[in-house]
Amino acid sequence: MRRVMYILIFSLLLSGCSTREVYEVSSFSGRDNVRFEQYVLPDYFIPETIQVIGLGDSLTQGVGDEYKRGGYFGRVTLAMNDWKGVKDLKSDNLAKRGRRSDQLLKQLDESDIQKSVKEADVIYLTIGGNDIMKVVKKNLFNLEPKPFYTELGKFENRLDQVFKTIRGLNGDAVIFVVGLYNPLSILTDEENEFEMIIDDWNEAIEMQVIMDGKACFAPVNDLFVGNENLVYHSDFFHPNAKGYESMANRLIEKIDGCGLTELSDGKLELQR
Fold first, then answer.
1. What is the pLDDT of residue 189?
2. Of the candidates 217, 191, 185, the residue with the CA atom closest to the CA atom of residue 204
3. Where does the record place the SGNH hydrolase-type esterase domain (predicted)?
């Protein structure tokens, strides 16, 4: 009898220690009105091999870079390896020292160059400096503004043809154009007519870039005013390694500002 009483008391204690919690579970059928926002994965989510080419003159070639890192072109293409959308990168620098816009047009007629342009995802370009220097050499002892503006009209037509030729071969590539600078500023920090000429040529280049719609212009003239920052090569015409580093940083800054993702149709994005 006493044993039975112990069992009853133990059972009551256990039942007193336990608690029952009732949870209200909503029916899954009542959630059929829940809507999810549509999300489309950007193209850069799946990295690809990116083809990059350099066109134009000595600035894209990297003349004056004592570290032999390929000037601004080599530095920017190296940075591109960290961009979203880049699995690996293949670059080909087709620029050449001394090349003018008329010579670039002839180069774009070559079959192997056309093949490179067709396959390119990104194109870097500098052009116009040697067109200006041609005028300087021709009028060395009688420099006046008029010949520079006569040549500018011709240059604008040739540059327009350069863009039309590239777009005829490749309508999707993003074109990044680096502007001109005034190497004569190393001789004087006073504003002069040549500075105005450089500004007008840069404006013409930038207008062509804007009209293209899938291109971006990076001005660099302010980076080479005088040589207090020691950005010139020993020839006092081309940038040195430090100058090219400044150009590369400016270009990446402008690539960000122009909207790389939009320009590349979602294919590329800067790594932040």
1. 55
2. 217
3. 55-245
